Amino acid sequence: MKQRRKKIKSEEKSPYFKKESISNVASPYFQNVVKFEDTNNTVSKYFISTKKSFIKSEGSERKIPLKEEDWEEKKLFTENSVLITKNRKTISYDIETLANMKPIVYVPKFVPMSSPYNLVQETLYYDPWKLLVATTFLNRTKGTQAFPIMWKFLEEYSTPQKTIKVGATKIADLLHPLGLQNIRAERLIKFSLTYLANPDFSTPKELFGMGQYAEDSWRLFCGEEDDAWMEGSGLEPTDKMLKMYINWRRVVHKGYLKDNEMSIDDTKREEHSA
Is DNA repair set as a keyword in this record (predicted)? Predict the structure, then answer.
């Protein structure tokens, strides 16, 4: 006990353990790096007002939201801009400018073969933004529940520019039946911002919120060539419906089935069709 008390006393004398509250104490090696503060301000007028923590660089008014679960350091959002790092260079894109961009013209490299499963990706291959939006709706959500809301969303907000301009509050109202509507709405806007800021992306994973399912869907239906389904391409998705589509393409390619036939073991496409 005496040794413990002596240790505490010695710590109290140290300049690193002053009696002030812990939130005000910082090592002299980090005095000029960052300060943390809580605020009720929104990240942007396009996002829903929620209580967030920010990192504020001393001597600068720039505020950068703390990383969320699926954020990457290379895709950060300030109050008025998107910061994207490519080739070790960080470029700032003004949100207002992105929202008023001219429509991005995309010319499909091929028309994917229509399958008996009627995957939504087969319908949206002509627009990578819409296809990737569809993957966010299908992520951990049954198709029967997601599709009616997804088609309504794409009808009302048919471009990333319209999605950004309308703001998260109205989008959240539309997404309410799916649950987690505020999170979903902000993710759609942040994805749209990075899509406009980085239209020549080499993989959807360079964009906000895009994971393996989005990557596999994009490669199959929006890639450079219609060959991602072939054996040896390296694409072996874990998603059940994408696996079924690939297996069906391979069987048809070998001549075992006609292009409008399913295999005996294939299940119905009710939950993943439009």
Answer: yes
